[in-house]
Design goal:
Layout: H1 3-17, E1 24-28, E2 31-36, E3 39-44, H2 48-59, E4 64-69, H3 77-84, E5 91-96, E6 103-104, H4 124-132, E7 136-139, E8 143-148, E9 151-157, E10 164-167, H5 171-184, H6 188-202, H7 211-214, H8 217-227, E11 238-239, E12 254-258, E13 264-268, H9 276-287, E14 292-298, H10 304-312, E15 317-322
Length: 329
């Protein structure tokens, strides 16, 4: 069935699910929509559709948006409703599409806040190894990530009986290096020195384009802010874990938290990520619901959609473009 026919069928399905069947309708990239004055209906079938529907509603000055979600293994209506909660406008109500009609999704309970993880004492000797080689340790939930300019070059696994150091950029690289350790008895510290030297040569301002300076630029940006927190009006920032993503190339906004009398959550991103504002607000719910939220992006990536969605969030939000550290002077 061609795409035009599928779009027409989905629009007809939304008309059947929505009460305003006489409303004007159209099919957009994220799904079908209906509009009746300040009220609108939209149907999505994946999490990215939420961003598209909200941007459409904001630009069309929709006051009330009925969001109908077609669930599948990758799309949970409750999770869509949770992400929509961070928005102050438009007013959004989420329903699940079923054969018997739309079923309203109850507002999810508030997310329990999470304290930033800390390194266990038994990892201190391996932390010293990272620091000796100029590698920055970033504590995450079940591991300590060793970074150079935001790119992982080593990892201390905290999930076993004792912390274990492995070297490499990504899981495949670490597995390969672990095989060399077993087969050639190469010390991980020797591998770390080699990996750190190679990554440092590419992970610097003005370096020639290379996969090692294209990956995880959001964490590179965060490393700059961690080194100079005054850039975002903070005294001290600590990196905290991002939301889970699949693979090194998927957008993964990198958060850092300052706590005190007035807490601040900084979330760094690079490139095109329309979901940045919603992801950042979800991270704020996780770590510090009342925190000031600062979205840090490279100057060249200051897209209107980021500011539109940031302005629609609940609570204090700032967008702060800074110079990209990978560009030469």
């Amino acid at each position: 069935m061609d795409a035009e026919r599928v779009a027409a069928l989905r629009l007809a399905k939304l008309r059947a699910l929505a009460p305003g069947t006489e409303a004007a309708g159209e099919s957009l990239a994220f799904g079908p929509v209906l509009r009746d004055g300040a009220d609108a209906w939209a149907m999505i079938d994946d999490p990215a559709g939420l961003v598209g529907a909200v941007v459409w509603a904001l630009r069309g000055r929709v006051a009330r948006l009925e969001l109908v979600v077609e669930p599948d293994e990758a799309t949970d209506p409750v999770e869509i409703a949770r992400r929509a909660q961070v928005l102050g406008e438009p007013e959004i109500r989420v329903s699940e599409a079923t054969e018997g009609g739309p079923i309203p999704v109850a507002p999810p309970a508030p997310v329990a806040t999470v304290a930033p993880p800390v390194a266990p004492p038994e990892a201190e000797s391996l932390l010293a190894v990272l620091r000796e080689h100029g590698v920055d340790p970033v504590v995450e939930d079940d591991a300590i990530i060793g970074e150079i300019a935001g790119l992982e070059v080593a990892r201390i696994d905290l999930g076993g009986f004792e912390p274990v150091l492995s070297v490499g950029v990504g899981q495949f690289d670490r597995d390969l290096n672990d095989m060399l350790v077993d087969a050639q008895r190469t010390e991980p510290t020797v591998q770390l020195a080699t990996a750190a030297r190679a990554v440092r040569g590419h992970r610097r301002p003005g370096a020639a384009p290379h996969p090692l300076n294209r990956l995880r630029r959001e964490r590179w940006l965060r490393s700059v802010v961690l080194a100079d927190p005054g850039t975002v009006g903070c005294d001290r920032l600590v990196a905290v874990p991002p939301l889970p993503v699949d693979g090194l190339r998927a957008p993964s906004p990198a958060p850092a938290l300052e706590t005190g009398d007035t807490s601040t959550l900084v979330v760094c991103s690079a490139g095109v990520d329309p979901s940045l504002a919603l992801t950042a607000a979800t991270l704020r719910q996780r770590y510090a619901p009342d925190a000031r939220l600062v979205l840090v992006i490279p100057v060249a990536d200051d897209y209107p959609v980021t500011r539109e969605l940031a302005a629609a969030l609940r609570g204090s939000v700032e967008v702060q473009p800074i110079a990209a550290p990978w560009l030469g002077s």
